[in-house]
Task: structure prediction
Amino acid sequence: MRAVQLFFIVLGVGGLAYWFTMGSDSQVAQVPEEPTSAIVEIVIPEPLSANAQVGKAAFEAKCSACHGVNAVGQNDVAPPLVHKIYEPSHHADESFQRAVTLGVRQHHWPFGNMPPVEGLTRDEVTMIIAYVRELQRANGIN
Result:
């Protein structure tokens, strides 16, 4: 049990240190003014679960301007979330929760830092994750 507690303490301290080192002069990804092309082509699962349908609506409202319709990414803007990099074994659901809450420093892709996303609750992000995971599974990302 102590190892688990220590892990979360180290994770929390590391996350805070990471957050504070982003600095105000860091490059931040910008919402595009005009549509750009998708980075990946995907299969859309039919039908989506009830949770994924709720998540899709939230994704379209808060995430698709950068990550593209159906999370396919946009050239020169933001990465696709339907990509092996974001499979659950590499980016667990909590990674998405933290990205929305804290933002993300550029590391896998050359798009700049992702700022925090305002106006989403943890439960809404959970529904967005359900949507993204269903898209991933339909495209062989497990």
Summary: The mean pLDDT is 84. The radius of gyration is 15 Å. Helices lie at 2-21, 50-62, 64-67, 93-102, 122-138. The chain has one domain: 27-138.
